[in-house]
Amino acid sequence: MTPATSSRFGTVPVRNPAIAARWFTELPRRTVSAEHDRQFTRWCSQYTVGALLEHFDGRPPTSILDIGCGDGGFLALARSRFPDATLTGIDPSADAIEEAQQNTPSSRLVSATAETLNTSPLADCQFDAIVVQLNLALWDDPHLGLKNAAQMLRPGGLCYIVDPVAGDTDRISTAATADSSGSELSVANYLADQAAASFTFGEATALVHDVTQSVEGTSVRVGSGGIMGYPIGSQEAVRIWRGNADVRAALLEADRSSDADLLYVHIIRNLDAGVTVDRSGPQQ
Question: The pTM is what?
Answer without folding.
Answer: 0.85
